[in-house]
Automatic annotation (TrEMBL):
Binding site for an alpha-L-fucosyl-(1->2)-beta-D-galactosyl derivative: 223, 246
Localization terms from the record: Membrane
Cofactor info, note text: Binds 1 Mn(2+) ion per subunit.
Gene from which this protein is expressed: Abo2
Protein name: BGAT2 transferase
C-alpha cells in the first residue's frame, strides 16, 4: 500500500490491512506454541456488551490459536451462556465495582498489573486489553503480536484531532509538551508481551495515583497516561485505526 504510513520515525511497523501475509504469520506463530490473553472489563451497565463482544472475539480474535479471555465483572451471575471455540478459554474473575466510571478506568490498570504478577504471567505469553463495548467485525490475527503494541486513535485522522487527544495542562503526570507528540493511541486496544504490559499498566496506575494525591486528574484519565508512557517507551508495533475505529466517525 502506498496510501498510508507504514513505518514510524523509530522504524516500528504500522499494521494496515493489506500490508502482511496472514498465512505466513500464522505458520510462524504456530511453531512457537504461544498462548495469548485478552483482558476485558464488564462492570455496571457494560455487562450488556458481554455477549456481543465475546461472540465476535471468539470468532475473529486470533482464530485457530489458543486464547484465554479474562473477563472481569461485578455481575458474574449475569453472564449469558457462551459457546467458545475449542482452543479458547473464558475465565471469569469477579471484581469489586468502584463508584464512577473514572474510578473503574483508573483501577483497571492496577487490576491488570496485579493479575499479571499473580496469575497471567504463568498462563499466557502475550496480553491485550480490549474494551468490552467493541465488536470485532473481521479477523484480527497474529499480525498484532509484538513486544509493545499501541493502536492509533481514529480521531487522529480528523481535522483538529489533536484537540481531543493530548493532555495539554502542565500539571498532570500525563502532560505532553506541545509539539512533542507524534501518534495518539487509544486505551481501548493495546497490549504486547506480558512483561511489557505489566510495566505499562503499573506506570500508568502510579501516574494516576500521584496526580490524585495532588488533586489532579488528566483530561482522558488512563488514556492520557497511556499516551505519555508510549511517548517515553516507544511501541515496537502500531496498529492502524482500522483495528479500533470509533463509530462516531
Amino acid at each position: 500500500r502506498r496510501d498510508v504510513l507504514l513505518l514510524t520515525p523509530w522504524l516500528a511497523p504500522i499494521v494496515w490491512e493489506g500490508t502482511f501475509s496472514r498465512d505466513i504469520l500464522n505458520a510462524q506463530y504456530l511453531q512457537k506454541n504461544l498462548v495469548t490473553g485478552v483482558v476485558t472489563f464488564a462492570v455496571e451497565k457494560y455487562v450488556q456488551f458481554i455477549q456481543g463482544f465475546m461472540r465476535s472475539a471468539n470468532k475473529y480474535f486470533l482464530a485457530g490459536h489458543q486464547v484465554n479471555f479474562y473477563l472481569f465483572t461485578d455481575n458474574p451471575e449475569k453472564i449469558p451462556p457462551l459457546q467458545m471455540a475449542p482452543e479458547n478459554h473464558l475465565i471469569v474473575i469477579p471484581v469489586q465495582n468502584h463508584s464512577g466510571w473514572q474510578d473503574i478506568s483508573t483501577h483497571r490498570m492496577d487490576i491488570i498489573s496485579t493479575y499479571i504478577h499473580s496469575q497471567f504471567q504463568y498462563e499466557v505469553d502475550y496480553l491485550y486489553s480490549i474494551d468490552i463495548d467493541l465488536q470485532l467485525l473481521a479477523h484480527i490475527g497474529v499480525e498484532i503480536i509484538d513486544a509493545l503494541v499501541g493502536t492509533i486513535s481514529s480521531w487522529q485522522f480528523t481535522p483538529h484531532g489533536e484537540d481531543k487527544a493530548y493532555e495539554t495542562h502542565p500539571e498532570p503526570r500525563a502532560a505532553i509538551p506541545e509539539g512533542q507528540w507524534d501518534f495518539h493511541y487509544t486505551a481501548s486496544f493495546y497490549g504486547g508481551s506480558v512483561s511489557e504490559v505489566y510495566k505499562l499498566t503499573r506506570a500508568c496506575f502510579e501516574g494516576v495515583m500521584e496526580d490524585r494525591e495532588h488533586g489532579i486528574e488528566a483530561r482522558w484519565q488512563d488514556e492520557s497516561h497511556l499516551n505519555k508512557y508510549l511517548l517515553q517507551h516507544r511501541p515496537t508495533r502500531l496498529l492502524s485505526p482500522e483495528y479500533c475505529w470509533d463509530a462516531e466517525l
